[in-house]
UniProtKB/TrEMBL annotation:
Keyword RNA-binding found: no
One GO molecular-function entry: ATP hydrolysis activity
Keywords, in A-Z order: ATP-binding, Cell membrane, Membrane, Nucleotide-binding, Transport
Native organism: Orrella dioscoreae
Domain of life of the native organism: Bacteria
Protein name as annotated: Zinc ABC transporter, ATP-binding protein ZnuC
Amino acid sequence: MSVPAISLLDVSLGWRTRTVLREVSGVFPPGSMTAVVGANGAGKSTLLKAMAGLIAPLSGVLHVEGDARDIAWLPQAASLDRSFPLRVIDLVAMGAWRRVGAWGRLPGSEWARAQAALEQVGLADCAARSLFALSGGQMQRVLFARLLMQDASVMLLDEPFAAMDGETTGVLLRLMQDWHAQGRTVVAVSHDLSLVRRGFPQALLLAGRVVAWGKTAEVLSPDNLAAARGGAAQEWL
Ligand SMILES: Nc1ncnc2c1ncn2[C@@H]1O[C@H](COP(=O)(O)OP(=O)(O)OP(=O)(O)O)[C@@H](O)[C@H]1O
């Protein structure tokens, strides 16, 4: 697996002409595992969307070395519409699109792989259930199963632990740590600083700009957190 490095040079991001994240420079090295933290509105989701290729920088250079299609993105759960008449296994199997094409007929091996992915997230018995009938935590596990199917070498996850109970959080974090151990690059937004300290070797602290980026224990120092809170209207620590 050749894992792309993602590098940013003076990258500013925003919506229309409004800049929400200024002059970000740094690299997510292949195989790194980084938590992106910061207050509401700090620019975390915007950064992930830019890294996923969904929005272009207002200025600066965001460079993906290698195959940009080899990046998987998990949006915030709240932005997903679950009203489609789909079974759980259908959604998981969609993760095979890079191997079979968007409208390709799935071979039996891919259905077997989708079932194995469901087993890995602890939902082996849910394959035939409707998406509509899942709890929030079960739905998040299903989306992780789809990521397992996607088999990408860079995983971008926007608040994967939000509103999850302790058990589901543990399952999801272990999967992410497995991906990291396999040499994939993992970047996840989280508001849970104790989980970030426990589970992520690297952290990127944002507040409309980079406050700190590096080893988690150093990034989440009291001084850096105070600096990140400075501009934010809402307490998040
Ligand atoms: N689609 C959009 N159109 C216009 N402005 C947007 C859009 N998405 C985000 N923004 C604005 O960009 C700023 C940064 O938002 P972003 O979602 O990146 O923050 P965040 O750090 O992920 O926050 P949160 O923790 O609340 O998810 C916010 O002021 C937000 O209103």
